[in-house]
Amino acid sequence: MAGELACSACGSRFPIREGVPVLLPGNVDAVKTETASRFAEEWLRWSDLRDYYEQEFFAWVAPVTAADFAGQVVFEGGCGKGRHTAIAASHGAKAVVAIDLGESAFVAFNHTRQLPNAHVVIGDLMQPPVRPVFDLAFSVGVLHHLPDPAAAFASLASRVREGGRVSFWVYGLEGNEWITRYVDPIRTRVTSRLPAGLLRAACLLPSAFLWAVIKLFYRPRANGRGPAMLPYGDYFASMYSYPFDEIHANVFDQLVTPVAHYLTGDQVRAWLASGFRDVTVRSHRGYSWTGLATVARGAAARAS
Ligand SMILES: C[S@@+](CC[C@H](N)C(=O)[O-])C[C@H]1O[C@@H](n2cnc3c(N)ncnc32)[C@H](O)[C@@H]1O
To answer: What is the CATH number of domain 19-173+262-296?
Structure first.
């Protein structure tokens, strides 16, 4: 639970804290550390695991299914409280190595410590402290929070072996233009700088409004009927049965971070333009992008 990892070849030393190896290089930018520590405020507060996370996860990463994890060596970039780490590990992965830059890794460790195939590490996705040996790498809701999402994707994919697969879900620009126009200025100038307790309190009113709108108008859609023209139709319908505090957490999640990029389909497809095969990019519910691709050339070949 506490100790140190020491490299006899290069002399580097890394602490182990509360069961989690802290494999951080000395040069992590302040903006990335700040982003991770803001998210830790979310995962330390809304720390429990919920039944509906599994359905939500497989909706985000489809066409990846539970069967795709069986027997695989899996890498997760940005695990937060470990909700998806636990799902991947419980579906028969040979090993799951999950990294996060923030203190939320300790929450993830506690959620997965009973799973012998789950390994949580504090590390920077831009300099992942792992070799390119993974059968499957995935990252849900993370790449768009790094200063350069394309570079973050390349870094995630660089840890996949040749013939392995990389899967991700990111915010889309399409369908979210109003957020970039009206919400982002408030997020960057105000809410991402508020103390977490104050932001939680400030999110209560908009969360209550959103919760009421979902309960009042999205029930038919949640039951597979209802008008297609409702804004965020399938997304809000998927939240119809969520408890209020999940809506509150989602609103907080939108407003807490200093960095959020909203990406076009073309930007995302460009990440996969070379070095990959069997590429699938799909719009997820009209407001985000899900990608899946097979690494055609391993990291060693790409570097040479
Ligand atoms: C919106 S959360 C998503 C967490 C998790 N994937 C989930 O869906 O529950 C984004 C996560 O990315 C992590 N993160 C941000 N920058 C990172 C970096 N450079 N390296 C590793 N993790 C990072 C944050 O600490 C945060 O936990």
So the answer is: 3.40.50.150
- Residues in the ligand 1 pocket, defined by CB under 6 Å: 32, 35-36, 39, 78-80, 83-84, 99-102, 104, 124-126, 140-142, 145-146, 253
Alpha carbon separation from 48 to 68, 81, 139, 214 (Å, rounded): 25, 8, 20, 23
| Cβ–Cβ < 8 Å for 257, 38 | yes
Domain boundaries of the chain, sorted by first residue: 19-173+262-296, 196-256
pLDDT digits (tens, 9 = 90+) for 187-214: 999 999 999 999 999 999 999 999 998 8
The rounded Å distance from CA 36 to ligand 1 centre is 6
Residue nearest atom 1 in ligand 1 by C-alpha distance: 141
Per-residue pLDDT of 112-163, as tens digits, reads: 999 999 999 999 999 999 999 999 999 999 999 999 999 999 999 999 999 9
* Mean per-residue pLDDT, 212-221: 82
For the entire predicted model, the pTM comes to 0.94
Which of 79, 70, 87 shows the shortest CA–CA distance to 120?
79
C-alpha of residue 143 to centroid of ligand 1, in Å: 8
**Which residue among 44, 100, 103, 158 has the greatest number of ligand 1 atoms within 8 angstroms of its CB, and so is best to mutate?**
100
